[in-house]
Amino acid sequence: MLAVFRTHCMRPEGSNMATAAEQDTTATTSGPLPAQTLTGRAGWRADSLGPARVVEVPHGTVAYHERGKGRPLVFVHGALVNANLWRKVIEPLGRDFRCVVPDLPLGSHRLPLRAGADLSPPGLASLIADVIGELGLEDPVLIGNDTGGGLSQIVAANHPERLGSLVLTSCDAFDNFPPKAFRPLVRLASGVPGVLQAVMAPMRLRPVRRLPIAYGWLAKKPFERRVADSYALPSGASAGVRRDARAAFGALNPRHTLAAATRLRDFDRPALIAWAREDRFFPPAHAERLAEILPNARLEWVDDSYTFVSEDQPERLVQLIRGFAG
User: The domain that contains 206 carries what CATH number?
Assistant: First the structure.
């Protein structure tokens, strides 16, 4: 969620954010969360996501949630949100599928990766592919939104053998990675210490969250305070989270999505493009272009929604994914 970089800086509300902590590198595949994981409001995750676990990959220890049995669905969120983005769709989909929801190192995660991990877009795509491999997921459906949709395209281009099919909801693509209007602010947040936490602290306040320059043009419907806290607080609570975010944001560049687009023509597995018709940041023309490039793609429009389709139209998204992946 890169739009928030345009909001005004304010002082954080309260002082009971979780203690900063680096990850426990001794965590084992599918094990419990390390004791150093951010907790409290910064680390809250919805019960509907399922139990929290960790998986060890070359980048470090990745926290994820899992619910249900059946064909695997892997959900990829964008910048400055976390697994909570998918909380409204996991419970119904978990009745028929194995839903795996990683917390990716994009600024609102609660378990930092190892220092020096490659958090460039290709590096993050490798992380996602490694999570799929380490968990032994066969024929998975990769489902991406916002920045996570751009990363999902890179996974499909660079690691097609890991995927069974692909779902792209409104997301970065082509030369829109990150959206052009926010590139100077992304560079500032990635390069200047203190900017990220100053930008995110006001997101806990509902009037600020609803500004068009914050989350207001990403979700039509307001989301609850505890979800906002889980997005806003981690960067202020953990130096490791800030380090990961700066590394990831500093590497965003449209050359990565443009390169992926040239290889998506060879991704012959089924693909679903589920795009918000009223999206303010990701043009519908990009949905149409992706549907043309992907050789086995279907385009579906989602009405009455902005970018966060899983927030604004969860029932419609569940219907589309269930029909596509079943």
Answer: 3.40.50.1820
